[in-house]
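Revision sheet: structure tokens.
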Amino acid sequence: MIKIEDLEFMDYMSSDNGKGFGLSVKSTYELYTLANKVRRFWGRTELFEIGNGQDKYHDFYVDVFLDEQRVTLRFCTKGTVEDDYVWYDIPLKHFEEKQLLFKVIDYLSKEKERR
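Predicted:
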């Protein structure tokens, strides 16, 4: 299980189609552990850890789909032989998805106040 309250957003990215947007998420040990579990599920063997100076890493994102009123937590692998630049979803339970949606709303409201 992921601690949604511990996620830290870093950047806002708009989508090309105008139907949503993304937020980059700061990498954590917990996210790397989840990413390795997801990759292992898909048969990937090239696993790695956060912050050990490798050329291999994950980028984490929250994608918000406005037209579908839902959010996903995703990651993209970088620098791997097996699945370079492949996107994976981190499975969320329904209550985690709702928590994440409210966290995004809270983040956006605070960002607006700062501007």
